[in-house]
UniProtKB/TrEMBL annotation, chain A:
Keywords: Oxidoreductase
Top-level taxon in the UniProt lineage: Bacteria
Quaternary structure, from the entry: Heterotetramer of 2 PreA and 2 PreT subunits.
Top EC class, one word: oxidoreductase
Role summary: Involved in pyrimidine base degradation. Catalyzes physiologically the reduction of uracil to 5,6-dihydrouracil (DHU) by using NADH as a specific cosubstrate. It also catalyzes the reverse reaction and the reduction of thymine to 5,6-dihydrothymine (DHT).
Protein name: dihydrouracil dehydrogenase (NAD(+))
Species name: Paucilactobacillus oligofermentans DSM 15707 = LMG 22743
Xref: SUPFAM superfamilies: alpha-helical ferredoxin (SSF46548), Nucleotide-binding domain (SSF51971)
Every Dihydroprymidine dehydrogenase domain range: 3-111
Catalytic activity from the UniProt record: 5,6-dihydrouracil + NAD(+) = uracil + NADH + H(+); 5,6-dihydrothymine + NAD(+) = thymine + NADH + H(+)
UniProtKB/TrEMBL annotation, chain B:
GO biological process: pyrimidine nucleotide biosynthetic process
Gene3D superfamilies: 3.30.70.20, Aldolase class I
Gene Ontology CC: cytoplasm
Cell compartment(s), UniProt: Cytoplasm
Enzyme class: oxidoreductase
Quaternary context: Homodimer. Heterotetramer of 2 PreA and 2 PreT subunits.
Name recorded for this polypeptide: Dihydrothymine dehydrogenase
Reactions listed under catalytic activity: 5,6-dihydrothymine + NAD(+) = thymine + NADH + H(+); (S)-dihydroorotate + fumarate = orotate + succinate; 5,6-dihydrouracil + NAD(+) = uracil + NADH + H(+)
Organism (species): Paucilactobacillus oligofermentans DSM 15707 = LMG 22743
Keyword vocabulary terms for this entry: Flavoprotein, FMN, Iron, Iron-sulfur, Metal-binding, Oxidoreductase, Pyrimidine biosynthesis
Amino acid sequence: MTKNYETEAPGYTMTTVMEEAARCLLCHDAPCSQMCPAHTDPGKFIRSVRFRNLKGAAETVRENNAMGAICARVCPTEKYCELACSRTGIDKPIDIGGIQRFVTDFEQQSEMDILKKGEANGKSIAIVGSGPAGLQTATTMLERGYAVDIYEKSEKAGGYLTYGIPEYRLPADIVDYEIKRIINLGAKIHYNVTIGKDMMMDELKANNDAVIVAVGASEAKVLPMFEGNQYVESAVDFLARVKEANGNIKDLPTSAIVIGGGDVAMDVATTLKRLNVEHVTDVTYEQFDEFRASKKELEGTQRVGVTIVDGYVPDSIEGNAVTFKARNMDSKLTIKAEKVILAIGQQVNADNLGINIEHGVVPYAGYKTDDPKVFVTGDIAQGDQTVVWAVRKGKEVADLIDSELMGVQNND
Amino acid sequence: MIKKDLSVDFLGVHFENPFLLSSSPVDNCYEMCAKAFDEGWGGVVFKTIGPKHFVVDEVSPRFDELTKEGTPFVGFKNMEQIAEHSLEENLHDLKQLKENYPNKIVIASIMGTNEQDWEELAQLVTEAKADMIEMNLSCPQMTSHEMGSDVGTNPELVKKYCAAVKRGSDLPMMAKMTPNITDMIPAAKASLAGGAEGIATINTVKSISNIDLDKRVALPIVNGKSSISGFSGKAVKPIALRFIQQLRVAAGLEQLPISGIGGIETWQDAAEFILLGATTLQVTTSVMQYGYRIVEDMKNGLMHYMEDQGVDHLSELIGSANKNIVPAEDLDRDYKVYPKIDWDKCIGCGRCYVSCFDGAHQAITWDPKTRRPSVDTSKCVGCHLCNLVCPVGAITTGEKVMKPGRKGNAEDKQVESVRLTHF
């Protein structure tokens, strides 16, 4: 019954990936390669595929991005590399994400060991949070020779990759393998440790040359009207519950309302349908012309038969009947369902970390904090909040710390 | 990124890697060669330099391509002759390249019309500090019959001109052979007898690629007419490999140093040339199509291949496949292997059925209701055409059987995949 939830769409075969790579125009000064927030170079790795150098393609992806197999699956490529693709001048962009998935799958099947640990420089780093930003930071620091300890409040690493994105879109095996690579590189992950509660920042600072806070926005936002309502669950809790049980959850409703218009809302609505919930209606604040979710996600949601009502905001709830008000019309709509799932955004829990968070991010650009030993990265640093941005921020904070620490050393 | 030593020694010259631009439009001046060096090529065979009295006068347009379905440049037709820059400019460029890129190898390709030309050109390029000479005895589109492939098919002329070059220079020298000949061995041996130390092959294959059906003129059309000229690219690779293999197994030529040319585009192509006996590799057509940058994947892929094969130096691979290429009469003809169809992979297109019926032995039966093919072993000869045409790889090699009355155990026969599988 959960097959629909567990099964990822099939990837390319050797034959079909060549057909797709053959569509690539191998542009001069490839526009796709200038568009990736994480500086992935599709122009180069697709060329390698085209010339049957799959191992070289894997090197190009992996050396740049510790989350290469994950980004291949979840990146909203239509906003980045594929948006720039010259092939659009003929028909449609190259499926860059799909080719990257083939390359990273090949890397895994061939058990390639591309990442190399740097020569130990005697310095150590603590990272709070093992989401994509924390993992990328760890990778870059390990490659530069730092000792890296990661503190994770949950029992598994990966943050939203592990507890959020549904299995059909991002299989747990893929996430686990990416994490295993980083552990093999030398990262020590301490599970079930909440910094600020089980262990204090002062201890981390005393024992490390730098502390990087990459806690992300892991807690659900709730509107006051929904608080304490027995029919209401947050998207964060629901997705984590489904993912942990691999789709085998007991209390599935026959009808559900999902409130929200981002990728998380699409994930929830699609997951419900894939788990055979018959009636799923998603109500979004945004109208279609201002939609936040990626096109791929929206299409996937529509394909499985989710009803989407756009341009409505929740007004009140009575029992399990939610009344919405149109944003741009004088109109109200009441929908009753067995379950209401809120996907209206997440918030940061940075209790006792000594970091000032306003509206989910630090109130300044960059990665430094008031404490010279403490840095931020990931969703709480300013910038976009996608996996590909997490990778970028992870690399940038690692660069910054490396230059600061090695600079200090050079002045000795 | 993987790092392996790709260096080779060829005619006493050390190359940082075996990838060279062949003498052609791709290395026609200093700027081109410099860019190629910067992008990682190990050397260049600078576009053929001719004698002062031979005036190069080119046509426009001058190229054509052979396509198949959606694939461009399956093969490439070229009417361009030798370098159109002046002798002085070419010699100046050679010298400057060597000065600015002392670790890269600059090979001067030369072509004369008589012994005196060859000797003088050899002397001039030696003075320009070239590392090596390649004698172009093989260009099929020269406007003089005293030059090019007409010369290369005549062993006596080949020997005489090689000797002339040797009189003009003590640089290591290779003679570039034409494939427009049934047997390359006599011309190759004549080159060696004349003083050549190695062979470069193949030059382009004489061709007519396409005909404009309305105008009834071959392409490219030059003011209403066209000519036979040289064909290159992926389509000629099998021809090149065959010539190289035959040279390396000919009596007395077993250690012949060869610079392999013909359709090299990927590291796999490169490895194939090496396994049949090439030490250096020359490339043009794929550079014309894609640019110098293709060398990145050829080098990187070759390093991974070396790693997979457990070798530290390319010399360990050179010619090592030749022992497995035997005369047709020496092949094991005692068994056959049937195809095996994986119905879980089969998508019911019926291409195997069509090809087997129309192109082989009517040994695949077709169930029109289920759209599933099956192998009729009473008719199947084990040719594996079905395997090659299957679009989803659902057909592989299956059961092996001895032919009636033959001795031996079919299970001992080494039957591998019929497709390339190494990546």
